[in-house]
Amino acid sequence: MSTESIFQTHLVLGYVAWLLCFGAHILPWLKSMDRVKAHRAIATLHSFRFFGLVFLLPGVVGPNLPASFATFAAYGDLAAGLLAMLALITIRIRPVFWLFVVAFNLVGMGDLVLDYYHAIQAGLPAQAGELGAAYAIPIIYVPLLMITHVFAFYLLLGPQPKATRALAGEAAVS
Q1: CA angle, 147 as apex, 127 and 139 as ends, to 5°?
Q2: Could you tell me the end-to-end alpha-carbon distance of the chain, in angstroms, rounded to an integer?
Q3: Span 150-154, mean pLDDT?
Q4: What residues are paired with 58 via a beta bridge?
Q5: Digit-coded pLDDT (tens) for 87-117
Q6: How many Cα atoms occupy the beta-carbon half-sphere of 100 within 13 Å?
Q7: d(CA 86, CA 76)
Q8: pLDDT tens digits, residue range 29-78?
Q9: For residues 144 and 30, is the Cβ–Cβ distance under 8 A?
Q10: In Å, what is the CA distance from 50 to each residue of 62, 74, 100?
Q11: pLDDT exceeding 90 applies to what percent of the chain?
């Protein structure tokens, strides 16, 4: 198999494995929580995205890793991770917490989509070996990040639980 085929197979299977795990274990766990706790759990996972800076470390990644991919991926991950940390720090100030939840999900998902775009434009799948030790990030970590962003948007945009609607209605009447 070519490097490109192996990378693409790994990427697809990373999504398949995480979707199976998410559906069987993570989704029921997140659904058992109220929205704040679920978003807090997702933000905790994403707070580790500072690790994306590894794409800039010589010796960890190959010298020919396309800079057009590496630089954007590294700083996009850092931004998403810092916004997730800010969401966690502001949990007690709900309007600010929700602002950072929306922000880290928008920035984080946008980063991942643009990383895919930059990777394709730079021909990264054919030179996936240049990812070096960071190879595991797009194969193992990124699928889970994308899946949790999608679920976070589902929670943000989906129907509110009856208890939340009732409280909102009481507040409007007062």
Answers
A1: 25
A2: 67
A3: 98
A4: 61
A5: 999 999 999 999 999 999 999 999 999 999 9
A6: 26
A7: 15
A8: 999 999 999 999 999 999 999 999 999 999 999 999 999 999 999 999 99
A9: no
A10: 20, 8, 16
A11: 90
Q: What type of residue sits at position 58?
A: P
DSSP string, 77-91: HHHHHHHHHHHHHTT
Q: Residue 163: its pLDDT value, please?
A: 53
Contact 19, 147 (CB under 8 A): yes
Nearest Cα neighbor of 142 from 76, 90, 61 is 76
Give the residue carrying structure tokens 């998403």. Answer: 80
Asked if 93 contacts 40 with a C-beta cutoff of 8 angstroms, the reply is no
- Check if the beta carbon of residue 33 is closer than 8 Å to that of residue 41: yes
